[in-house]
Amino acid sequence: MIFGLYAPIPMATVGSPEVAQAAAEALQPLAPGRRDAQFDHGLDVLMAADRAGFGLTLFAERHLGNDMHGWVNAAAIASRFEHMRALVAVHPGLWDPVMIAKMSVSLDRICKGRMALNIVNGWFDEEFRMFGGTLLQGEERYQRTQEFIEVLRGVWTHDVFSFQGNHYKVDGAQLLLKPATPEPPEMFSVSRSERGLEFIASHCDWWFVDIDKEATSTDEALRGIEASALDMQKRAARHCRKVRLALNPFIALGASEQEAFDATIQRIFKYDPDPDTRKIERRMMPATRAGCIGPSEKVLAQLKRFEELGIELILCKLIPTAENVTLIGRELIGPMNGGSTPLRMVS
Question: Which of 25, 74, 127, 238 is deepest in the core (most CB within 10 A)?
């Protein structure tokens, strides 16, 4: 099983004094000789995760926010990884696909062939308008994203590539720099809608299985994950494809489930005195229902249940400290993988 984590940034991180500091300082000049606190903290945590056996880092992207830019952050940090893959978010509609193709292979080559793309259709209309994009709705936005992926893969795999679509037109595009490996970067995505699930089944390599926000127990959440996993594989099979499955549980270790949960909540409110309730309620709380909070033995048992359902990647939501990722590496990653961890996500 592959384990991943998020690069610490305000959008994706709770309970981090360094990230809270960076957010508070975002509109002020830095002291001479200082770097942004979220970068220094991210470097420390992610290098510890690389040593601890994690296999992937998601560099999320929120353009209209005080987060470090995902591509800049990934290029500055992931080039130092010895094992982890850099998964970088990209919003079709904000970027030209040929430009992203060049940026991707550049990062791929400095990351030793270990980068992938997280395709995000987006929802924030103000952000799209401010940064020069157009937010589409319904079928049209999936058509655009499918064309975006076709252009990426076409430019990566052809010496000269042309394309005529409804949203993108490419005439004789050339990349004089190719991906670092014969297999081009993989595509990850997440969606809950019927159209989104069909898009993932037909065009993506990985799907982040949704954890039901309405589930009232871990067993109910697990049944929902099992049903969703089976549904995706049936959809993919209709396209003669296989989609690999990932999950985003919140992981916190402690002597008991209640102790681990209480310590997490206390830390969040200690370092985020006015926490983003949307981030906690919509991102963290459903993830806690996956049953990965408490003693190591309990969490390991739950991870093995996920593995039996076909989950191959655990993208951990967690309190981002070097000590915590080292603990997870020792208590969970090592035992789950027989004392070793996969260095590449091979098909």
Answer: 74
**Which DSSP category does 282 fall into?**
I
Residue 341 domain-assigned (yes or no): no
Q: What is the pTM of this model?
A: 0.91
Closest CA to 214 of 205, 224, 204, 206: 224
Q: What is the CATH number of the domain that holds 171?
A: 3.20.20.30
Alpha-carbon distance values, 69 to 9, 22, 88, 117, 320 (Å): 9, 13, 10, 15, 18
Per-position DSSP letters for 264-281, written without gaps between them: HHHHHHHH-SS--HHIII
Q: The dihedral of CA 306, 309, 311, 317: what is its sign?
A: negative
Instruction: Answer yes or no: is 141 within a domain.
Output: yes
